[in-house]
Amino acid sequence: MGFEAITFYIFSAILVGSAILVVSLRNPVFCALALVLAFFTSAGIWILLEAEFLALTLILVYVGAVMVLFLFVVMMLDINLAVLREGFARYLPFGLAVAIILVAQLALIVGPEQFGLEAMPAPPSHPEGYSNTKEIGAVLYTVYLYPFEIAAVILVVAIVAAIALTLRRRKKKQTMGPEDQVKVRRNDRVRLVKMAAANKDE
Amino acid sequence: MIESIESALSFLPDGLVTLIIVIGKILALVLPLMGAVAYLTLAERKVIGYMQVRIGPNRVGPRGLLQPIADAVKLMFKETIFPANANRFLFISAPVLTLAPSLAAWAVVPMNDSLVISNIDASLLYILAMTSLGVYGVIIAGWASNSKYAFLGALRSAAQIVSYEIAMGFALVGVLVAAGSLNLGEIVDAQRGSLGILNWYLIPLLPLFLVYFISGVAETNRAPFDVAEGESEIVAGFHVEYSSMTFSVFFLAEYANMILIALLTSIMFLGGWLSPLNGILPSSLLAGEGFVAGLLGDGIHWLLIKTSFFLFLFLWFRATFPRYRYDQIMRLGWKVFIPITIVWLLVAAALVVGKVGPWFN
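The joint structure predicted for all components is written out below.
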């Protein structure tokens, strides 16, 4: 067994283990952290496949941004753990049934007939100086330009919709716009008055 | 030099030799880095001291030069206190999760043409990915401390880092477009030219340079963006419950990140180890062997000088600016920096396509 195989098995074991922890741990904060570990290890496996751009983007986008926001939300939830523990036995049969169906479906699709070693041999390793970032960029902006742009538009629409749904305008807003603050000159706020000295007794 | 070590160790199995050399390289980087961190704390106290017409630490050793060592010894022998209802496992792992990514990012940082631990193709992306992991230490520390101040600090920091990472990433995309490579060594080489300073990306990418450096200050939670610590509002923010070595590990990570940001800024925008005297002095003085050529020509010392300048800026900012208000930080990140970077990305692309000299021809 070569170095690559050993690395692959270690990473796979950690990946499967952390994925199981994601669904089995009670505390949602620990679940989110286990998911972080799962993302990180799958990035490691992608690097073994010489897909360094995708692997680093996975870390950058999912671990560095998406999961941070997840944790942000999960940590602020006020969850009663005792209530969460109660339902486990009751929902177990249903959960198991769903899991078994899912695994069966997956096995049918990505089974050995379609994705076996004969159908999908390991890709030839690339020569030194090969940059898969360049390759992805070239394909993304030529062959797949329309799907890429349409996906981008859909995401923008989703962002705008999410903001439009949650934006509340308060009637009595007390904050000041920074541009107004910058424009303020001394004469708008302060008026210096010259007065003759007054007598105390008057 | 590495070949001679390899031949001296040739009696050992191949894998072991590689391992020893890799560990040796890591030590050769981390030990000076930790020394730099220690003396950066002293520099910070001295510089800010002089700026505020004080003397700064001057009791330990000549002119206070041994102060960092005294601090380290003190922190090592203090007791580590665990808050009563803190989650002990996460409480301990938070400082580790802060330090590990900030050191891991250094693996691909080149010091000159050949001095780099791992010369990978996508090193810029790798650094961005590693520095984006640092936020976990802060969040976990805030949550595991089971303290309101710490938690507030963690939430502030999470929102801030996620916001500024976007501007930072876009600034890096500008550099990537200009240099046509994700490799830091090639980015420096792309700034080489007969005009010296004028060839650096500082000039064509000036807005991106400003955005990158300011975002870097925000990413490292330094003043004026230090709302995560906010001594005057939430005591010390995310590390309020930490003591002794657990506390100092947070500090090590923060200063290592500062040095990294300063170094990356000089590599990407100020020509890294390229000498600023190129194009001013005759090239016969700069190239070749000898002490004068080594001093005036390209070399690691220029990189260190540029880095020190940016580190001084970090300290200068801290002594100068009041802390940003939280909504102003968010406004600056989202409404100012991100539009600037997107616009300048188009400008940079146009410059590259139009082969505008002296940078892109």
